[in-house]
Amino acid sequence: MTVESATDFAPSALQIVAKFQCGWYQYVHRWEFDGAGEIHAALGMGGALNPFAKDKAHVHHMYYRIDLDIDGFGTDVFEVFDHTSLNDPGGDGWTTINTQGRFVADPARARKFRVRDLTSASAPGDTRGFEIELPQNAGHDAYSTGDIWATVYRGDNVQQGTDVGFDCTDKVLEGVYAQGSLDTANGSDIVVWIAIRHHHEPRFNAEEAVFLPYHYEEFHITPRGFEVFRRGEQPGHGEG
């Protein structure tokens, strides 16, 4: 765990890091919580190439289970943002989703996703939520068909993730988790699953021949509706 003080260019930050061995690879989980309320989740891939297939290109599929519970649980909705034109207003909009399921990112529409509480709001009245922005560094394939799944919490002993990816596909998310409706009027206990992918073309005769330098893929969770700052105020930044 490390703590970074605020500067003129960035807010203060708390970073928590853990490393895990899996076969020849080492995976680093890194979570950063900054003074502006943003959360940056990253997974680093390093270690060594498969000694029996050093030259074989492959794709890493990483799944995160996120349960935000913004102000208690049971009153959240899942929403999708799309940009359609530069008209103001009318060119951008959020759609509240009424069914659990799979969703894909769309850079052409600046698509992002949000978990929003229906009752908790800032003083001016903007309801609180967290926006989720996903990277696009590898496409969908037969093993990983989506970017984010909207599901509901089903109890401490049921569907907590041990069976997701068991056969190296997302079919459990599709066929078991993301099934049923979402309550758009009163809210649900939303749990989202996020897929991060990386296509790895090994540099097996050069930089990665002995050791893999850590390569990080990450996504960002940004608060919306939590705080109002005075004009000219920079949240969590150092003095100039």
Description:
3% of the residues lie in helices and 43% in strands. The chain has one helix at residues 171-177; strands spanning 2-4, 13-22, 25-34, 39-47, 58-66, 76-83, 92-96, 101-103, 112-121, 127-133, 148-152, 190-200, 212-224. The strands form two sheets. Strands 1-2-3-4-13-10-9-6-7 form a nine-stranded antiparallel beta sheet, with no helix packed on it. It has a four-stranded antiparallel beta sheet with strand order 5-12-11-8, with helices on one face. A hairpin with an 8-residue loop joins strand 6 and strand 7 (92-96). The chain is globular.
Oligomer: single chain
Average pLDDT reading: 90
In the CATH hierarchy, what is the superfamily? Copper amine oxidase, catalytic domain
**Main β-sheet: number of strands, strand sense, barrel status?**
9 strands, antiparallel
Shape: globular
- Work out the helix count: 1
Per CATH, the architecture is: Distorted Sandwich
Total domains: 1
Query: Which class of secondary structure composition applies to the elements?
Result: mainly beta
| Helix content estimate | under 10%
Summarize this structure as a short list of keywords or feature phrases.
240 residues; Beta-galactosidase, Chain A, domain 5; nine-stranded antiparallel beta sheet; 1 helix; 13 strands; 43% strand
Structure in a nutshell:
By secondary structure, the chain is mainly β. The chain has one domain: Beta-galactosidase, Chain A, domain 5, CATH 2.70.98. Helix content is 3%, strand content 43%.
Task: Outline the fold blueprint.
Elements: E1 2-4, E2 13-22, E3 25-34, E4 39-47, E5 58-66, E6 76-83, E7 92-96, E8 101-103, E9 112-121, E10 127-133, E11 148-152, H1 171-177, E12 190-200, E13 212-224
Antiparallel strand pairs: 1-2, 2-3, 3-4, 4-13, 5-12, 6-7, 6-9, 8-11, 9-10, 10-13, 11-12
